[in-house]
């Protein structure tokens, strides 16, 4: 299964689920398209719950599975090294296929075998789904780490770069860190730096790991560079220089 059960709080996800529900009752082949982490494999498994799931890049395994199955889920079909041979095998073995792809694409060999094609929009276009997913991932985090389901979403900006995959990782990390103790945080930094250190300018190279979060937190809390400079005991020009030096990490602040 994918990183989460398919959420249907938004109009777009509801329509996608309706299409999947219809396909569950039919015997046609279908192609589900969309970015990483939008729920393609979840819907494919909903349509064919007992089917084997094989990535198209594992071509030899895929051909063997096609010879011994009545239905199959093929993920990332656009990565197949030989689409013609794949399609021929599907037709020869009379297999029902639900396939997924990371992007919309057309190919002469697959146009005829997929009676239904539909897209799942990215989470950035499904705001209603994001809030539900945050709650769901928080619940999973509470079970995993043995805490409450309270999650401080103050200043939480959802990472949707990989849709549900990146969002889940972000929630898990933030949940774990919200009650972290100083010594635990320092131990994490120590382990991180142990693997990185080795040059003659490590102090300067890794100073941003301290300065960037301090500046970001301060700007978020005090709302102005002037106030932050005062709280940090820095000259305003010094703070401006630090912000400029770390602009790669402070864009939008």
UniProtKB/TrEMBL annotation:
Query: Membrane-spanning regions, if any?
Result: none
Could you name the domain of life of the organism this protein comes from?
A: Bacteria
Q: Which GO terms describe its molecular function?
A: ATP binding
**Which residues are in the Sigma-54 factor interaction domain?**
61-146
What's a BP term from Gene Ontology annotated to this protein? Answer: regulation of DNA-templated transcription
Keywords linked to the UniProt accession: ATP-binding, Nucleotide-binding
Which PANTHER family does this one have? TRANSCRIPTIONAL REGULATORY PROTEIN (PTHR32071)
What is the protein's given name? Answer: Fis family transcriptional regulator
Native species: Sulfurimonas aquatica
